[in-house]
Amino acid sequence: MTHQHIDNARKILISFGLPRAQQNERSALCLLALLDLQPDRKWAKAKNPLMGITPIMDWIRDHYQKTYAPNTRETVRRQTMHQFVDAGIALYNPDKPDRPVNSPAAVYQIAPAALALLRSFDTKAWSAELTTYLAKHQTLAARYAHERKQNLIPVQITLGKEITLSPGEHSELIKAIIEDFGARFVPGGVLIYAGDTGEKWGYFDAVSLSKLGVSVDAHGKMPDVVLYYPERDWLLLIESVTSHGPVDAKRHAELARLFAKATAGLVYVTAFPNRAIMSRYLGDIAWETEVWVADAPSHLIHFNGERFLGPHSPAISD
Question: I need a surface site. Which of 10, 152, 198, 296 has the fewest CB within 10 A?
Fold first, then answer.
């Protein structure tokens, strides 16, 4: 079964930072049920009904023709709705908080902040609203690693807005890419993706990337950082090199395939923490790419071509 609302709901759950086990069709359909978002209804018209598990499953069957067996009721409750509540996406028994646990009358409702955000989906305000929401609501994936919170690395993605990454030199370089490289060479840029050594996706606006023509599932081998440069309509695909290799010919081809449907021009960048590490990989760096070194942040090294920074079209033979 495919429907644009289902696909978008799954991308939204990815952007919310739900663990991989909740980035599936079942959870996407449960989100649509909590919003009463029928196939012909726009996101701006999303609602907030009170719904129990069985009514949620009935709603999914009636509106999206997906039938779940009665014995999957506990799966829906334990493997989707519990995580929605933990993530602050849904409220449990908001009409009667003292209702006994596991009462057959138990109900769920979309949380007000999540409802306000989701009504902005598919509008120009979405990306900014998502950033504001995530800045105020810790993602569930991050919460599951709460014991490491004291060591997390803060990264400013826009004025007054931060995300956090797992500790380590790799994340320190990602921080420098976003805060230093981005400010200097991608003014007005929008962070689409930032990887994390602790969680596969430290930050991912899957919806904005989809609008640029690229849909990536949980198995896509993303670069470490993806920045969008609206002024020039470029997607910058940036690899952070502390122990693994740069954008060599093989990685260049992988990224070209992964982002083949992008409507924006592609710019390939390798970032190093210092020139000593860069020197180990000079013979591997692919042509038609850029190199940035964090200890000399105002400079770029351009590997061939007539432009200092920009996307390259495939060579055309005579």
Answer: 296
